Every structure is written in C-alpha cells, then in structure tokens.
Automatic annotation (TrEMBL):
Family recorded in the similarity comment: Belongs to the SAICAR synthetase family.
Entry keyword annotation includes ATP-binding: yes
Pathway: Purine metabolism; IMP biosynthesis via de novo pathway; 5-amino-1-(5-phospho-D-ribosyl)imidazole-4-carboxamide from 5-amino-1-(5-phospho-D-ribosyl)imidazole-4-carboxylate: step 1/2
Gene Ontology biological process terms in this record: 'de novo' IMP biosynthetic process; cobalamin biosynthetic process
Record Pfam families: SAICAR_synt
Name by which UniProt lists this protein: Phosphoribosylaminoimidazole-succinocarboxamide synthase
PANTHER family found in the cross-reference section: MULTIFUNCTIONAL PROTEIN ADE2, SI:DKEY-6E2.2
Keywords: ATP-binding, Ligase, Nucleotide-binding, Purine biosynthesis
Catalytic activity: 5-amino-1-(5-phospho-D-ribosyl)imidazole-4-carboxylate + L-aspartate + ATP = (2S)-2-[5-amino-1-(5-phospho-beta-D-ribosyl)imidazole-4-carboxamido]succinate + ADP + phosphate + 2 H(+)
Organism this protein belongs to: Pseudooceanicola pacificus
Entry-linked InterPro entries: SAICAR_synt/ADE2_N, SAICAR_synt_PurC, SAICAR_synth, SAICAR_synthetase, SAICAR_synthetase_CS
Length: 253
C-alpha cells in the first residue's frame, strides 16, 4: 500500500493528504507542549481523548449551523476534515479572567468579565504568538474587514455553544482558543472553524470545586492530564471511563 503523504506536523497533530481532493486526515498525537514548547511530555491517551472531544464539539457546532472543517472521525486518533487555508490568527474568547489576561492586567483569576472579550494573536511560534489588534491584521493583510466581522461572529457563537454545553455538565468555560480557515467553493470563500476544540485549547473549571480540567493541569503540574480530560469526556458522555487504556489479554482460569 502506498504511504500517504504528510502535509504538516505541528506540536499536537499531524496532517496527511486525505482520500479525496479537498480533504485532509488530521491525526492527534499524544504530545503535550506548553510555553511555546519549552515544556514537553508525552501523555498516553491524550490524542485519543482530544480526537473524540473535538469530534463532539465540532459536530455540535455543525448541527447548529456554525460551519466547521470537520467531516467525520475515522478511527481512535484520526478525523477527516475539509482542507482549508488557515488565517494566521489564534482567536481567543474569554468569559473569566485567567492566564495571560490575569497576568497582563493584574485581574485575579476567576473574576467574571463584564462581557466576553475576544483577543487575536498572530500565529508564529518563533515570535511566541504575539497579541495583535485588528489594525495589524488589516495593515498586514492577514484578513479583510469582512473576514474579521465573520471571525468575531463565529467566535461568539462558538462561545455561546460551548459555554452552554459545558454548563450543562457542571463545567465553567473560562476561555478558549479557536482557529479559522477559509474554504473555497467556486468563486466564493467561506470561513469555517478549523483545527481542534479540546481541553488543550480551552480552560475548563469544575463549577463546584474550581478544579482545572484542561491543559493547565500540565502547564502548572496539577496532576494527571489524562484523568482531567477523561472526566470531561465522561461528563459529556463522549466515551466510557478507561476507554483510552490499552488492555492486555488476560488469562482466564
Ligand atoms: P492564555 O491565557 O495563555 O493567553 O490562553 C488563553 C486560552 O487560549 C486558553 O484557553 C488556552 C488557549 N491557548 C491555546 O490554545 N494555545 C496557546 O498557544 C495558548 C498560549 C493558549
Ligand atoms: N500551545 C503552546 C505550546 O505548545 C502553548 C500552550 O498551549 O500553553 O507551546
């Protein structure tokens, strides 16, 4: 069998050429990185969990009319997605202060924000994904004003959807990051939610205890990342407990 072509390898995923033109296979690795890959580890089962969780969120978004790149999950670690041209921005939506916002503005983590705040970072690992404004985005031609109106609308719809889904299972959506891609259909382009939506790219806190159920567990050494992601998956009914554990054959007496 011919080996499929690798298109791109990132920190947490690999993209392969898909079976048909305009499609891509997105493979979720177990690699975890933080602080622009200064901190690294391999967390067994993380890729399987994120593949499932991203499928769950993207399918939900598709179902309520928020377009995404997601087509279908192929297996434990792979999903088929539409090929798109990624706008080089990390679109961050925040409902509560945390992380870099708390640091930058001196606001205590967990403080409710007066309204959702949307921020943009320029996707460039060498520069450490610096924050930019719409002025930079327009001046450097990364996206048009029309694109940015659509990006903002998409980001806020994703926020409403994710906040509701998480609230229903006792989890507070503190903030998250999405990426947006352009899909071409004839002469037209459409913007879609791309990349992944998973606990790697969200801050999720248990509503009662405040326990972190996201990548901060890894960033801040707060315990088992797999346990945290499994708990999110369990509450959402996405996969049974221990489904990521590889079971060895056992002897039956
Ligand atoms: P921040 O507080 O570190 O700026 O992160 C805001 C949100 O964006 C948080 O949910 C984590 C997510 N995020 C990513 O998905 N990738 C990144 O590279 C960074 C820095 C944050
Ligand atoms: N994704 C970034 C990295 O891999 C940073 C982060 O998520 O904290 O380094």
């Amino acid at each position: 069998m011919a080996r499929r072509k690798k298109i791109y390898e990132g920190k947490a995923k690999i993209l392969y050429e898909g079976p048909e033109p305009g499609t891509i296979v997105q493979y979720f690795k177990d690699d975890a990185t933080a602080f622009n890959a200064q901190k690294k580890d391999v967390i067994e089962g993380k890729g399987v969990l994120n593949n499932r969780l991203s499928e769950f969120f993207m399918t939900g978004l598709n179902n309520i009319g928020v377009p995404t790149h997601f087509i279908k999950r192929l297996n434990m670690r792979e999903q088929l997605v539409r090929a798109c041209e990624i706008i080089p921005l990390e679109v961050i939506v925040r409902n509560y202060a945390a992380g870099s916002l708390s640091k930058r503005l001196g606001i205590e983590e967990g403080t409710a924000l007066p309204r959702p705040i949307v921020e943009y970072c320029y996707k460039d690992d060498k520069l450490g994904d610096p924050m930019v404004t719409e002025e930079h985005i327009a001046a450097f031609g990364w996206a048009s004003q029309q694109d940015m109106d659509d990006v903002l609308a998409l980001a806020l719809r994703v926020n409403d959807f994710l906040s509701g889904v998480m609230m229903a299972v006792g989890i507070k959506l503190v903030d998250f990051k999405i990426e947006i891609g352009r899909v071409y259909e004839g002469d037209f382009q459409r913007l879609v939610v791309a990349d992944e939506i998973s606990p790697d790219s969200c801050r999720l806190w248990d509503m009662e205890t405040g326990q972190h159920l996201d990548k901060d567990v890894f960033r801040r050494d707060l315990g088992s990342l797999t346990d945290a992601y499994t708990e999110v998956a369990r509450r959402l009914g996405v996969m049974p407990k221990n489904a990521t554990q590889i079971t060895k054959p056992t002897l039956i007496n």
